[in-house]
Request: fold
Amino acid sequence: MSRKPVSDLILPPTDAQRRRLIAGGALLGAAATLPGALRSAFAQAPVVVGVIYVGPRGDFGYNQAQAAAAAMIKKMPGVKVVEEENVPETAAVQKTMEAMINQDKAGLIFPTSFGYFDPHMLKMAEKYPKVRFDHCGGMWTQGKHPANTGSYFGYIDECQYLAGIVAGYTSKTKKLGFIAAKPIPQVLRNINAFTLGARSVDPSITTRVIFTGEWSMPVKEAEASTSLIDQGVDVLTCHVDSPKVIVETAEKRGVFSSGYHASQAALAPKGYLTGAEWDWATPYTAQIKALQSGAPMPNFLRGGLKDGYVKMSPYGPAVGATAKAKADEIKAAMIKGGYVIFKGALKDNKGNTVIAAGKSYDQFDGELEKMNYLVEGVVGSIPG
Amino acid sequence: MSSIPAPAAAALVVPSPSAVRARAMLVALVPALAALVLTVLLFSLAVGLAGFNPLEVWGLIVIGGFGDAFAWQNTLQRAAPLVLTGLAVALPAQAGRVIIGNEGALVLGGLAAAAVGTALASSGAGAAIVWPAMALFGAAAGGTWIGIVGWLREKREVNETIASLLMSFIAIALFNQVVETVLRDPASLNKPSTKPLPDALLLPTLPGLDVHWGLAVGIAVALIAWGIMKFTPLGLALRVAGGNPKTALGVGLPVAWLTIGACAAGGACAGLAGAIEVGAVHGAANASLIAGYGYTGILIAFAARFSPAGVVPVAILVGGIAASGSLLQRRLGLPDASVTVLLGFAFVALIGCETLRGRSFPLLGGRKNG
Reply:
């Protein structure tokens, strides 16, 4: 058995380990030789940042995307990061937040799971008004939620649209597959953006969707992958917490895959096309810098490709030059600003017009947050 | 049969009753102590091999779970639902039934409580009506669900262990379906939930503590169950039915209904736990309720050797280990699985050391043959 800590196998050295290395040399040397003023600045307590994950940090998905950002902020000067994984959305997460505040003296907490917001984080924010809480999900509302709380989120449907373009150029069967957790607006928006991207290449392309009903249910995800591939699908993508099993199944069966949340390229060196990834280092860094400098911390942070909140996985070997050129062209337009994904006339897959001709919704439009339809070209229906 | 050697010494020196009792207690503690030592050794070895200092790890486990007032409240809060889910396994076990599907009873209890609670709240009812109604409907939902499992076992000879597990999957599917359709709060866009209870109707914390009333309810139910088992004819009947069904039938006990009743009582505990989670923590029923408390209850009941009173300290111990797991992750960067490994070792050690029970220990002053 290796004498390395288990966490080293998947993640860079932990905060504690690095601290041990640095502490000896830095503190002994600096404290003894630096002049008084500098020394007191050095002795100033670092900002302690708590990061809480609902699943394992190395899940190749949602949690790993957050953990990657946590690893980035560990490198910032004057920042100490404490992390806890597999924390359920129960009283346990309230106690974890309290423990970070009481035992680790955390001044800023990132509770990263959607279900941590209400009631858990709101309750703790009320109890600890001097601690700052920034939640992943975009639910913070002016006047309704405490001032020491905030939201950060990204318009990842932009990346799904680009991934759809790549899938559209790559697919030979013209059948794409999407494995989705729950039929909620965020998920529907991704399915629709992916499909619209693909059909911008070839309107005969269809996306078959399967809802598993759970955020993390690898058995069902594997079954859904197999079933979609058996139906002739040759590009698979998804919106579940960990795309691992889906990407692996696609690779094993010799079809292409497009990732989500984080990069799964390592799991499918042949068939991984690209993927829609979060870039949470952007909001994490912004809030910590504001906290350190005493600048006001925004309560609502949200952005797309342009703002560095989301990014694309690097193209895999199977992506052709035309696909790259087209996707890069649209990406440049998105980064420039003003590119609209959802515009009329748009029909759902039952033939109803959901966006009238001439009407268009920009990314920030609240109407898109209520999405309750699947666009034309999606094979499947919203359960329930 | 000619020469039975007289146990001379034992016959001559009659130990005082208090000495006998002390020795009996000591012998009774042997399996637990052996399990504790074994657990400490195994886990120390595991963390040592992973490159951590076992002393530092054990120190943090004690501090994180039981080190100060905050740690205790952290522990007790985590233990609160586990007392009831432990009972949910321990009560059917009195009748000899092994139920492992209480997760389903818990979520259905939570769902029933949320439905009743919000309906009553919208008609203007106060806490004095809403809370008992939520508890009652939660317990009834869970009790019915596991009662069905007991009925299937007694009347249709369907294995209760497998049936309860499969019924749990059905219950969770049913729960999700109802929460995402008929009872869905239209405002819960990205996280389907039932309508929330008004803040005034959320269960408060215990006076002077940061732990909700669920803990007190759990302990009260455990003590009542313990009292019934120990002091009432019903408890005796249940023990006979569970211990030796043939004898129980011979003396005319309604074994089938006693068993179904014990299963239903267990399910009611799980349902009550769900109702309390909704009333004290979530304020609504949603997928966060499916947190595995029902499965942790299996571990707790087995470790407590199915004693309804024993469930309480074991639940607190498990709550404490969960609280210290939190600290271990934050201080040492140990993976979350480390406390699962610890619980696994503890469970295996406890069951393994059970074989020591009833043996005599010459070193403790007992006779060789026991």
